[in-house]
Amino acid sequence: MIKKNPLQANESKKAVRLKDLKIFAESLGIRFKKIELLELAFVHSSYQNEHSEFEEDNERLEFLGDSVLGLVVARYLYGKYPKASEGELSRLKSKLVSTTVLNSISDQLGLSAHVLLGRGEGSGSGQKKLGANLFEALIGAVYLDQGMEAAEKIILKNLIEFAENSEKLESVKDFKTLLQEVCQRKFKTLPTYRLLRESGPDHAKTFQVSVKIRDKYETEGIGKNKKFAEQDAARNMLRILGIKNG
């Protein structure tokens, strides 16, 4: 029986990974000059701590990508809203580069499928920002490899629907998670959701959902799908509870 050389096995695994990353980059319309930059964008610190093959993790790329993202969004908003005040522009920018929006973009792009995580990385608070951090690291890698124009293109391509559609922007605000945290802190329990009814034709359905906290509080929400309806119900409940973010 011929034993596999561990070094050859690792080299083969790396070759497959780089090939997959090249295919992913091409799906974004990008041909990396240094594919290792893209690879680094997906090296989480928990993985780098457990493996010697990488000298650094993606946090420096994330730092760079965050700055590039902020500049591109600021310039876009400055041009789109010539009469908006500094405060109005800042509030809109904050919404567009929020963790929930960037997490949503990351999910759409399937970034988490490429990340290298350590064995000890669980589902704690750091995981809530994983998608957003990956998108920022990706932007940092694109900027270093392709320049500002390419980075701006991929940012605006993915953010434009949120910038031009207030309903889309509002839909990704995670009211359900906020309500869950409030309930655990104040009531030592979790809210319960129930689908009340569906109405309308298949192509334009409306969903109505109720949310309840024990037998003390109950309210409803509506939306074009169950997820949106639950978010609306959670937002209404937060308002009942006097939570400003709701």
UniProtKB/TrEMBL annotation:
Domain RNase III: 21-147
Alphabetical list of CDD domains matching this protein: DSRM_RNAse_III_family, RIBOc
Keywords in alphabetical order: Cytoplasm, Endonuclease, Hydrolase, Magnesium, Metal-binding, mRNA processing, Nuclease, RNA-binding, rRNA processing, rRNA-binding, tRNA processing
SMART domains in UniProt: DSRM (SM00358), RIBOc (SM00535)
Pfam families xref list: dsrm (PF00035), Ribonucleas_3_3 (PF14622)
Domain DRBM: 174-243
BP terms from Gene Ontology: mRNA processing; regulation of gene expression; rRNA processing; tRNA processing
Subcellular location: Cytoplasm
EC code: 3.1.26.3
Keyword Metal-binding: yes
NCBIfam families: RNaseIII (TIGR02191)
Function statement: Digests double-stranded RNA. Involved in the processing of primary rRNA transcript to yield the immediate precursors to the large and small rRNAs (23S and 16S). Processes some mRNAs, and tRNAs when they are encoded in the rRNA operon. Processes pre-crRNA and tracrRNA of type II CRISPR loci if present in the organism.
Subunit-structure text: Homodimer.
Name of the featured protein: Ribonuclease 3
Organism, as annotated: Leptospira fluminis
